[in-house]
Amino acid sequence: MLPDHLIVARMQQGDLIVDPPPAVERLQPASIDVTLGDSYRGFTGNHTTVTLDQIPDDLTVGLPVEDGILLQPGDFVLATTAEHFTIPADLCAFLHGRSTLGRLGITCHVTAGLIDPGYRGHITLEVSNVGPVTILLRVGDPIGQVTFEQLTEAAARPYGHPDVRSRYQDQDGAAGPRAVPGLVELADVIQIRGGA
């Protein structure tokens, strides 16, 4: 994992790009703070069953951009970092929640914390309120931290390579889920029922 001075060195080198660059107070010992952007998506509730290879375009809808997002207990929205990232082929990055938000019951990513080598774009946040109180998250609030890890060598097929299913390259703002093409169809779907 890169410490603060090596994160700065890679940004000065110009292959690790964070735009806008983090202010000094956002540089942590082994990470940089990222802030909440102004793009949000919510689920429409139009569909009851979705498969990974057939995700409808209208599953999520853009939410009005105001000062931020009000999260009631149990709410889940897609949001974005204000920062746009370019990750070089010899680094990968990881999105982490912040301790204060965690102690309030706010997660900034449900599962998608890995940012692949070669990725370019804003980071979509999977924001959920699993706590007992309503929280207002405002545009510009610190929402997470990103760490960077050095690969032993550059990836041969970084994110965006034609042979890689890079469905979110160059995303601008919060991006909804996109179908996974080429999944093998199963002849039978097994349903697991309680007690069976």
Automatic annotation (TrEMBL):
Entry GO MF terms:
dCTP deaminase activity
Read off the InterPro entries from this record: dCTP_deaminase (IPR011962), dUTPase-like_sf (IPR036157), dUTPase_trimeric (IPR033704)
Please list the GO biological process terms of this entry.
Answer: dUTP biosynthetic process
> EC?
3.5.4.13
Q: Does the keyword Hydrolase apply?
A: yes
Is Hydrolase one of the keywords UniProt gives this record? yes
Which key words tag this protein in UniProt?
Hydrolase, Nucleotide metabolism
Pfam families recorded: DCD (PF22769)
Official protein name in the record: Deoxycytidine triphosphate deaminase
Q: Mind telling me which PANTHER family this protein's record contains?
A: DCTP DEAMINASE (PTHR42680:SF3)
